[in-house]
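INPUT
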Amino acid sequence: MQPPFTVSLEARDIACERGGRVLFQGLDFALQPGEALLVSGPNGAGKTSLLRQLAGLLPLEAGHLSAPGAEAGMAVAELCHYVGHLNAVKSAFTVRENLAFWAEFAGDGNVDAALAAFGLGPLAEISAGLLSAGQRRKLGLSRLFAAPRPIWLLDEPSVSLDTASVKRLDAAIRDHLKAGGIAIVSTHVPLKTRFTKQLTLGLERAA
Amino acid sequence: MSAALALLVRDVKLAWREGGAIGVALGFYLVVVAITPFGLGPDLNLLARVAPGMLWVALLLAALLSADRIFHNDYEDGTLDVLTTGPLPLPVLAAVKSLAHWITTGVPLALLAPVLGLLLNLPLDAMPMLVLAMLAGTPAVSFIAAIGASLTLGLRRSGLLLALLVLPLYVPVLIFGVSTVSAAMVGPGSPWPPLLMLCALSLASIVLAPLAAAAALRTALR
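OUTPUT
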C-alpha cells in the first residue's frame, strides 16, 4: 500500500479560448486531498478543454494553476492521469504489453494491479486489437493503476462501459479519494461517487 | 532515463510489430535503385559515376516514406496526449522518437546500401566509406524528418507535404554524403573532411531538431 497522497490542486481565475471564442473565464476552484470535482455542462461548454488545460495539453488563456503539497519543481501535468476520449491503446501490443509500457514509462508501476483493476487479467495475453470498444475503454482506464498519481482527470470515463464496469469505476474513484487522491470527472452519466464540489460550465454565456 | 528507454524500446517494437515501416522503406529503396540501370542504360562507367548520388537520393526518399509515422499513430490514438503528461519534456520525447525512427529506418537502409551499390557498379573499395557515410548522415535525416512530421501532424495525406517541407533541408546532407562516397571512389581529396561534416550535421540536428519538433507538437496538441 502506497502512502496517501498529500497534493491539493488550486485553479485561480483560469480562462479558455478556442478559435476566438471564450469558453469560460474567471474560473476558480480548489480541491483538497480526497475531494472530487464534477464538471458538467452542455456539449461544447468546454469540459474537455478544461481537463486538457489541467493536463497541460492546452495553454491557459489567463490565470494560474498550482499544486500545493507537491514536490518542488513538479509541473501540475506530471501529477495528473489524463483519460480522454481516446484510449491510447496500441493494437499491435497485447493487453499486458500496453499496461507494462505505461507502468515503465511513468516509473515504478505495477502491471498486475492495473490488470486486476478492471478485471482484464484473463485477457492479458490477447492482442489489444481484438478488444471490443468497452474492453478498450477498460484498458484505457486501467492505466490509472499502472502508476500512482494523485490527480485523476477523467473525461466521460463511463462511455461504452457496461453496468458492472461502471460500478468498478465508481469503486475505483472512491478508493482513490480515500487514499487522498483528487478526481476531476466530466460525465453525463450519474456516477455514485460523492462529488464534494460541482462546476457547471456554459452558464455565464446563457445568463 | 528509464522512461526514455521504455519509449525507445516500445517504438522500435511497434515499428517491427506493425510491419510496413521497415519493410516498405527497404523495398522502396531496392526498387528505386534497381530500376535506375534500366533508365540509364548498361554503361557501367556511367552507372558507377551516378551511383553515390543515386544511392543517397533514393535513401532520402525511402526514409521519408515512414517519417510521418514518427508521431502520427500516437497522435491518432491519443497516446501522444498521455505521453506529454509523462515525465519526459517534449523535446526529449521528440528526440527519443526520432532516435527510434533512425534505428528502424536509417540503420537498415544504410546497411542495405552496399548491396544496392553492386547493382550500380559501385567499386568495392568504396563500400566501407558508403556505409560509414550513411550511418553518419542518417541521424540528421531522421531528426529533421521529425520536424516535418510534427508540423504536418493532424493533416490528411500529410506524407506529401512532409516531403515538400523536409527535402530541401536535406540538401547539405546530400552534398556531403555524395562527396564522401565520390572522394572514396575517385578522389581527388580525402573522404574524411566531408564525412566529418556529415557527423557535424547529424550532431547539430540531434540537438536542434527536437526543439523545433517540440514547438510544433505543442501547437498540434491544442
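end of record. Chain B touches chain A through 22 residues (CB under 8 Å).
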